[in-house]
Write a structure and sequence with these properties.
two-stranded antiparallel sheet; 120 residues; mainly alpha; 5 helices; single chain
Length: 120
């Protein structure tokens, strides 16, 4: 299997299934953030008042665009518009809704208006 990183992280076309969402976006971002926070603590660049360090902050800014792209494709797998990503703007409820929709509910079986299902 030949995985196309550029298509996955930088093109909003197509669909992303739950497995890809968890294993290629959520898990790596979570692990890298923890490692960078530990490094920030070790080298003294962690700001306890703000709760973020220099390296983790730079990384967080760098993954905003790829994350939004993958969220859009995950909505496409659920046969919904990528505009549903804006639900994150609703405090607390939006994040919970998005986690349930993207992380736990299956995509539409078979092809939908955004293309054929992705095989992991």
């Amino acid at each position: 299997m030949n995985f196309d990183w550029k298509q996955f992280y930088f093109s909003p076309d197509g669909r992303v299934n739950r497995q890809q969402w968890w294993l290629r976006l959520i898990l790596p971002v979570f692990v890298i953030s923890i490692v960078l926070t530990i490094i920030d603590l070790a080298i003294g660049t962690f700001n306890r008042e703000q709760g973020i360090g220099l390296l983790d902050g730079i990384f967080s800014l760098a993954v905003i665009y790829p994350s939004i792209i993958v969220y859009i494709k995950r909505w496409h797998d659920r046969d919904k518009s990528g505009w549903w990503t804006l639900i994150l703007l609703i405090p607390i409820v939006g994040a919970i809704w998005m986690l349930i929709e993207q992380g736990f509910l299956a995509g539409t079986p078979g092809p939908n208006r955004f293309g054929p299902p992705v095989t992991a």
